[in-house]
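TODO from last week: model Aldose 1-epimerase.
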Amino acid sequence: MFDISVDDFGALPDGREAQLYTLTNEQGMSVKITNYGGIITELWAPDKNGTSADVVLGFDKLEDYLDGSPYFGALIGRVGNRIDGGKFTLDGKIYQLAKNENDTSHLHGGNVGFDKVLWDAETEVTEDGAELHLEYVSADGEEGYPGELTVNVTYRLTADNELYTDYKATTTKATPVNLTQHSYFNLAGKGSVEDQLMMINADKYTPINDVLIPTGKLADVAGTPFDLGEPKAIGAEVNADHPQLKIAGGYDHNYVLNKPQEGEMSLAAEVVDPQSGRVLQVHTTEPGIQFYSGNFLDGTLTGKGGEVYEKHAGFCLEPQHFPDSPNQSNFKSIILQPGDVYSSTMTFSFSVSK
Ligand code: GLA
């Protein structure tokens, strides 16, 4: 059986109230999600002894998210990751979006991305799990993007400790769309993730230039610190003398997933915390995944329960189409046409190893 409860999460500056939804299953897993930014604020998963810990980074209060969050737990859109110069050409027209990263790039949808808006929310218990349905209508011209985009996201907690996320979107004009989820995980619940073992199912990644925009090349991971085909401690080579790691202060790269079939759900990554035995698997229909090792965390943010978030306090695995796709002719297009339906699915599955 499943349980869903709703609590007030506080008021936005314009007076609207945000809610906090708690989805629980019988296997000891629960997840808290607010309709502000669709943010996963807590995710409790059992360890090998059955003891649960909260395995995502975040804040205790809405005010802390409003004060500035590095996208902790949030839904990301209209275009996740970076667009070079915030600029792209579509059907002969040039679009200039906000350059909200160091005045060089457009990052994660702009100044007010989908992580900072209030979504309409409805809950439902189905035979598949406890569900939270979120809807947001992004106006034509919002953050500089063309077309009114209607976005529907369903989070579902299943009986077998899986958090499933489904994204759908439709538009009134051709527009780029690349939606993702920005949870920072720490399978130990606190401290550094450097001892946690990362496997990413990819033979190639997309190297970046000095402002973290893909060069357009696909590089082999073999023989480099980027080779995570076999599980490797995140900290083992995060500081290795590799120019790509120096640029980003660690891993902050898009992996080109090995996929049996384009667009099909497949295993993208598996992370194991040897201490607690917690295992996270990420499956996605997307062709890429951004592995970010929490390089910009620097001890200035204090999160839930007074935990200070130092560098590498969490990692992100963000399923996605490749960064800067609107400007990269050899990357798959992320342009959604009117009449078509954008669709993407991902799961975060929790289990334990001995
Ligand atoms: C993404 C980016 C990172 C960083 C984080 C948020 O993962 O790739 O470079 O911007 O979001 O801090």
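Done. Residues 70-71, 81, 107, 212, 252, 290, 292, 296, 316, 318 surround alpha-D-galactopyranose (CB under 6 Å).
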